[in-house]
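Risk register update: the risk of archive-format incompatibility is retired. Evidence:
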Amino acid sequence: MPPIHRPAGRHPCTHPEVQAFPARIILGTAGPGDGTRRPSLETGGDVEFLVNIEIRWPADGDPAELARITSAERARGAELGAAGTIRRMWRVPGRRANWGVWQADDPTALHAAIASLPLFPWCDVTVIPLAAHPNDPERPGGR
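Archived output:
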């Protein structure tokens, strides 16, 4: 993995890591009777990912800086939600962590979205690509 650029003043206590698998999983709506699959334009990208983010803010980190970055993080998260990149999000009680379903064109696009988060330099990120399941009640037949 190439070195990660950290903006000046950022604490390098942890090394963020995004683990993505180079899978191409096509989701979306079926074509007009021809058996093809087409990405859904309503939801943005065509690959869903289960994403776990753990925030590793240093214990001796500046609380004012954390408040400033957290505010920027909420704004960026809202933008990613409005764009359809973040589809669902759950917090992990008692920890600075969350799980979410994200959607992007491919793992590279997902990495760019995650790296755009202001707290990214202090995040440990795990990514699991998802494929449709034929028993999914939201998508009968795995569509």
